[in-house]
Amino acid sequence: MRATLLPRALFLALIFLFSLAIPGCQAGPQQNEAATPEAMREAMVKTQLENRGIKDKAVLDAMRRIPRHLFVPGNLKTRACEDNPLPIGSGQTISQPYVVALMTESLKLSKSDRVLEIGTGSGYQAAVLAEIVKEVYSIEIIKELADRAKKTLESQKYKNVTVKCGDGYAGWKEHAPFDAIIVTAAAEKIPQPLIDQLKPGGRLSIPVGPQKEVQKLMLLTKRADGSIEKTCITEVLFVPLTREK
C-alpha cells in the first residue's frame, strides 16, 4: 500500500481518501458536533444504510451499537459517522459506513460462522463482524495499525476477534476453512489461497481490478463441488492489496 516514489505515494493516498462505493459516494453534511455518538450512529444507520437498501437486521444493529468514534483518531471523532472514509494513519482509512454495511450484508452471515478478514485497518470492520458471528480472524500487514486495532478491540471486550500482523494474500491456513472471507483492499486477481480456505457454501467479498481504475466488488460463493459462482455487487475504488516483499 506504500510506495517508494513520491508521485505514486501521493496517488495512492488520494485513492485511499476517496475509496468509497460509486453509488451515493458524495459525502453528506458534516456531523453536528453537539450530537451524541449514539445520535450520530442512529442518523448514520437511517440515512446512509437503511435509505440505501441495507436490510440485514444484524448488520444494522451492529452498526448502531458499535462506538465508531473510538476507531478513528481523536481529532476526527466528531466526524466518525460521516458518509465518507476517514484517514486513520499510515496512509490508510476507515471505510465509508455504507461500504462496510454492503460488504458485510453480502456475506449472509450467521451466528455460528467463522470469518477471515484481510486488512484490519482500524478494527471497525472486525468489530462489526464480531457482533454477528462466532469467530473473527483478521490480518493487517502494517504493524502499527495491527497493534492499534488489537488494543481498540480488546478495550471494547471483543473476545472473539484474533488479530495478527502479516501478509493476508495467503490467508490464515491454521484456522481454515472459513464460512466467509472479506477483503478490504483491491486485488488484480482473486488470491487462490483465499478460495482454497473457503468452506463449501462459503462466501468471499473482495474488490477486484487494476489500481488506477474503478474496480468491481465481487461476491464469490463456493459450491459443494468446489466450483465458484461469481457475482458483481457494484463498482468501488480501493487501494491495492499489499504483499510482503
Folded structure, characterized:
The protein is α/β, with parallel strands linked by helices and 245 residues long. It has seven helices and nine strands. It has helices at residues 6-17, 37-49, 57-65, 97-106, 124-132, 143-155, 192-196; strands spanning 86-89, 92-94, 114-118, 135-140, 161-165, 178-183, 198-208, 215-222, 228-236. The protein has a seven-stranded mixed sheet with strand order 5-4-3-6-7-8-9. Strands 1-2 form a two-stranded antiparallel ribbon. A hairpin with a 2-residue loop joins strand 1 and strand 2 (92-94). Helix 3 (57-65) packs across helix 5. The longest helix has 13 residues, at 37-49. The termini are close together. The model is unreliable at 1-30 (pLDDT under 50).
Report helical residue fraction.
Answer: 25-40%
Low-confidence stretches: 1-30
Widest sheet: strand order?
5-4-3-6-7-8-9
Q: What's the N-to-C terminus distance? A: 12 Å
Estimate the mean pLDDT confidence: 88
Q: Can you count the helices?
A: 7
Task: Offer a quick outline of the entry.
The protein is α/β, with parallel strands linked by helices. It is 29% helix and 23% strand. α2 runs antiparallel to α3, α2 crosses α4 and α3 crosses α5.
SSE topology sketch:
Blueprint: H1 6-17, H2 37-49, H3 57-65, E1 86-89, E2 92-94, H4 97-106, E3 114-118, H5 124-132, E4 135-140, H6 143-155, E5 161-165, E6 178-183, H7 192-196, E7 198-208, E8 215-222, E9 228-236
Parallel strand pairs: 3-4, 3-6, 4-5, 6-7
Antiparallel strand pairs: 1-2, 7-8, 8-9
